[in-house]
Design goal:
Elements (H helix, E strand, L loop, with lengths): L13 E3 L16 E4 L6 E4 L2 E3 L8 H8 L4 E4 L5 H10 L8 E5 L3 H13 L5 E5 L6 H13 L4 E7 L2 H10 L3 E4 L9 H5 L5 H15 L2 E5 L5 H10 L3 E4 L13 E4 L2 E7 L4 H8 L12 E5 L5 H18 L13 E3 L11
Parallel strand pairs: 4-5, 4-11, 5-6, 6-7, 7-8, 8-9, 9-10, 10-11
Antiparallel strand pairs: 1-15, 2-3, 12-13, 13-14
Helix pairs in contact: 5-7, 8-10
Amino acid sequence: MRIEYEVKLGFKDVMFRPKRSTLKSRSLVSLERTFKFMHTNQTWTGIPVMAANMDTVGTFEMALALQNNQLFTALHKHYTIEEWNSFLAKAPKGTENYIAVSTGTGPSDSEKVAEIFKHNPHLKFICIDIANGYSEHFVHYVSETRQRFPDKIIMAGNVVTGEMVEELLLAGADIIKVGIGPGSVCTTRVKTGVGYPQLSAIIECADAAHGLGGQIISDGGCATPGDVSKAFGAGADFVMLGGMFAGHDESGGETIERNGKKYRQFYGMSSATAMKKHVGGIADYRASEGKTVEVPYRGPVTETVLDILGGVRSTCTYVGASKLKELTKRTTFIRVAEQENRIYKD
C-alpha cells in the first residue's frame, strides 16, 4: 500500500484566471476543431462536444439535433441492427461524421458491430465502452478491433491515468475516454472507493495522449457550461456530456408527469434500471453502480446547445483565445474554495 500526497482536482476546485484579450465579441471565437487520428490518418472537423452513449442521452434523435451544430453523438449500444439500418436509410448525408457505433467487449458485440458496418460501410467511428478500462481483456479487445476494422476511428475507455492511455493508444485506439466516477448518475466512487478527480485526470491523460499523437475525451463531471470550458482548458480534445443533455425531447427516457410538471427519466448504464431493461436484472456477482433520477423536462435540446457553446465562447474571450484550440494554451487555473454566490438558489 502507498499514498500519493499530491492534491488532485475536480472542476469545482478551480476557476480560470482572466487575461488581456483583443477579442471584441464572443462571435469572433471559433469552436470548430480539426483532428487527425493516429491509426487511420483520417481527419474530423466539427465542434468537439459529444452526447454520451447512454440510452437516455445518446439517441438517434439526439444525433440528428446535434449534427445541426456540428456536435457529435456516441449512440448507445442497445439499438438493433434493424434500427440502425432504418435510421441510416433516412438520415441526411454527412451524419456518419457525427456519430459512433458503441459496443461492449462480449463475443457477440464484435459480431454485431461487424454486421452494422457490413450494411453501412460509410460509418467511421466505433466507441468501445466499459466501466473499467484497466483489464487486460479490454486491451486485447481494442487490439483485435483495430485488426478487424483497420479503417475505422476507435474510441476506447474509460481510464484516468497516463500509462493506461498510452497502452490503449498503442493497442490501436485513436481516442481515449477519460473518467471514472464523475458522472451525475454514476455511483462507482461510493460503491467501490475507486476514482480520480476529473480535472487532474484530464491533465494527466491529455499529456500522455498528445505525446503519442492521440486524443482524449473528458467523459463525465460537467454540470455547467463553465465545466465544459474547464475540461477543454485542461487539455481535453472532446468533452462528453450526459446529464447536461438529459431531459430533452431528443434524450429518450420515460416521461413522467407530477403535479402538472413533466420530468424525464435519466439513469446510469450500470444502474439497476438499465440492467433490468437490457439484461433482465443485476447479476448476483455485482452491485448497481448507477442512479436513476427524474430530470425536469427541458424541451428541445437546441437551447441547451446554444447555452453550452455560448459559455465556452465567453470563456475564450475572457482569456484571449480566438479559437478553441488556443484555450488550453491560454489557461491558467486558480485554486478556489467557492464557485458562486448561492444566496438566491435556483
